[in-house]
Amino acid sequence: MSDAPRTLLDRLWADHEIHLRDDGVSLLWVDRHLVHEGSHHAFRKIAERGLSVAEPSLTTAIVDHYAPTRARDGDGITDDIRRMIATLEENAARHGIRCFGLRDARQGIVHVTGPEQGLTLPGLLLVCGDSHTSTHGALGALAFGIGATEVAHVLATQTIWQTKPKAMRLNFEGRLGPGVGAKDMALGWIAKLGADGARGHAVEYTGEAVRGLSLEGRMTLCNLSIEGGARFGMVAPDTKTVDWIAGRAFAPQDALIDRAREIWADLRSDADAVFDRDETIDATDIAPIVTWGTSPEDALPITATIPDPARLSGSRARKVGEALDYMGLSPGHPLEGTPVDQVFIGSCTNARLDDLRAAAAVLAGRRAQVPGLVSPGSALVKRAAEQEGLDRIFREAGLEWVDAGCSMCVGMNGDLVQPGKRCASTTNRNFRGRQGPGARTHLMSPAMAAAAAITGTLTDVRPMLEGRL
Amino acid sequence: MSGWTRHEGLAVGLPREGVDTDQLIPARFMSTPRAQGYGQFLLHDLRRDADGALDPSFPLNGADGSSILIAARNFGGGSSREAAVYALVDAGFRVVAAPSFGDIFAGNAVNNGLLPARISEQAALSLLAVLATPQHGHVDLAAGTLTIDTTETAFDLDDVSRQKLMNGWDDIDLTCAHAAKVADYRRRRIAIAPWVFPDERA
User: Fold this and answer.
1) What pLDDT does B173 receive?
2) In whole angstroms, what separates CA B131 from the centre of its chain?
3) How far is Cα B138 from Cα B155, in angstroms, rounded to an integer?
4) Which of A7, A23, A320, B149 stands 20 to 30 A from A275 (CA)?
5) SS3 for B159?
6) pLDDT at position A71
7) Does residue A411 sit at the B interface (CB-CB below 8 Å)?
8) What number of other Cβ atoms are within 10 A of residue A74's Cβ?
């Protein structure tokens, strides 16, 4: 073992490396595997080969992508949705895998439920067949999204072959202003570096503004790593992390938590560690951000104007023109004041209790001008929010309060934005058709989505928070 | 999966940046069993107009039987859905060349015998210009070259992916050869971090 300074990535990688092949590919041990309805391809692959699941107790199946958010036993649920959910529950039962099915009190979005249950812990390697698995890095885990062939491999072997990514440090200096949060930090860096800006890298988020975030905020930041091209996002665990984990169902208890704390204290980059890439962003400069186009990199402060393709050239002009055409926006107009048809507050990016509180702080005592859906990230988040009375605030504002799932972020459960409709959304992708064919998505924070609900337009939330923070 | 070294076929250009996996296959088709074939879903909404009719001006619509796709920057970004690769493979594609790819997409592609060939921005621009109409193309994995009509372009591909594509390796078989090391690691892991194994805790 060399004494050379190491990054957090170096440590986590070395801790899980079983074998390093001559060509530089590592065989890594997988501590946690989360599967959702999309795993049907992978279960079919292992069934075709007559393989069993190597470590059923390290795998957890959770219904999220197709989870109905209203009347779960009702007639409105299509046969297709029923079949997808039943297939996951049956595959889990067949292989002896723990399952948080549709009627389980722990059901929720994999990236909300994993940390909430203490399945996600610092120092673990966690994979899931979903690109937003980077979320779990917020606790100091090595977490990344994988494809179906890899899911089948993990099921069969509890290991995965990976080439080590390059290490990138994204340092947010200074403190965020009021009304600005993790979503704005994330969209800000993605707009600056591009949707493929961190391709091939594992991003470690550092700096005062990152330390200042709640664990939920860190999860939002890590969640969006993939929208900037990074398969991995991570924050070194600190006392906030350990306090957040204590007492969760699958977290170490009693004497073991003390042992765990000692190990977790070493999970950080050495002060003199060298990163392949280093970027610094001034957090004090960040304003609430919204997207205007069809990629998360198409993001600007709410105070900006819509870009004008006539002032650009080449492929950039063409791309901006096509995006504005799809989005039905006019160049040169201010973003603020753009009318929206509806809002969505939810998804693995922004549906934790902290997110719902941030939206409720804006909505309390106010009335939404447009319809909206609020889908908490898990059944337990829903219950906790109801205990605080947040559901009443959403309902009294005129928004619909529904059950937990991926819902309108990806529309697989039938929660869709209709063609041509404009949605202020706390989700992670403003891709064409993401929320439904022809849907127009503007990404933003929960507080900004709440502000859009109240005015019926894209709005700077900051003045609306005066006296409320 | 069988390996391959050389491929010849019709090449088509898709001059559009950021073709994400939601474009490659919209989410609503992903509950379909693979046996039904995913080729019909490839770029489903992009190649159709608002009424659902195929748009004759969309490049792929005039290029049946093509197997080499030349695309622009940030191809296959977004979701980890391997269905995006299934849609390309089931539609007959063996090669996608672009200046950059989503990391998860590129890994999924190699796992399904589809080559994600990285070419320079300049090369992509020139090839897309040549491909105003589909042209004959030729790809040599070992040499790392892509030839469209008479223009030869070098492409980047890491050696691991190259070997995997050429040999058609199966990762599960490879891993089984390391079973003893995996078992050793598991024993060490449980000693160091017993909380990793919640069901085996005392």
Assistant:
1) 86
2) 20
3) 12
4) A23
5) helix
6) 81
7) yes
8) 8
The secondary structure of chain A in percent helix, strand, coil, rounded to multiples of 5, reads 40, 20, 45
Q: Is residue A144 predicted with pLDDT exceeding 60?
A: yes
Tokens of A443: 């990404």
- Would you state the structure tokens that stand for residue A352, as one six-digit string? 């934790």
CB atoms within 10 A of CB B1: 13
Q: Please identify which residue in the block is written with the tokens 């899911």.
A: A151
Contacts of A41 in chain B (CB under 8 A): 34, 82-83
More confident residue, A390 or A254: A390
Q: Which CATH class is domain A8-277?
A: alpha beta
Please write the tens of the pLDDT for every residue from B133-187: 999 999 999 999 999 999 999 999 999 899 999 999 888 988 999 999 999 999 9
DSSP state of A177: P
Domain ranges of chain A: 8-277, 290-465
Instruction: Determine the residue type at A122.
Output: P
* Distance between CA atoms of residues A130 and A144, nearest Å: 8
The model's pTM is: 0.97
Higher-confidence position of A462 and B200: A462
Token pair recorded at residue B19: 């073709």
| Spatial distance between the Cα atoms of B26 and B176, rounded to a whole number of angstroms | 35
Tokens linked to B95: 């090669």
Q: How far is B81 from chain A (nearest CA, A)?
A: 6
Q: What chain B residue is nearest to A229 in terms of C-alpha separation?
A: B102
* Alpha-carbon distances of B172 from A119, A161, B35, B109, rounded to whole Å: 26, 10, 22, 17
B148: helix, coil or strand? strand
- A-contacting residues in B 86-105 (Cβ below 8 Å): 100-104
Q: Give the CA distances from residue A461 to residues A220, A334, A369, B195, in Å, rounded to whole numbers and listed in that order.
A: 19, 15, 15, 43
Among B29, B122, B24, which residue's Cα sits nearest to residue B69? B24
Strand B151-154, strand B145-148: pairing: antiparallel
ipTM of the complex model: 0.95
Q: Which two tokens stand for residue A70?
A: 């209203």
CA nearest to A428 within chain B = B78
Nearest CA among A136, A137, A278, A134 for reference residue A207: A278
Please report the domains of chain B, with CATH numbers, ordered by start residue.
6-169 (3.20.19.10), 170-202 (no CATH)
> Is residue B73 less than 8 Å (CB to CB) from chain A?
yes
Contact call for residues A256 and A231 (beta carbons, < 8 A)? no
Tokens of A156: 């069969």
Q: How many helices (H) and strands (E) does chain B have?
A: 7, 7
pLDDT at A469: 76
How far apart are the two ends of chain B, measured CA to CA in Å?
A: 44
Judge contact between B94 and B67, C-beta under 8 A: yes
Tell the residue number behind the tokens 């989360």, with chain if given: A34
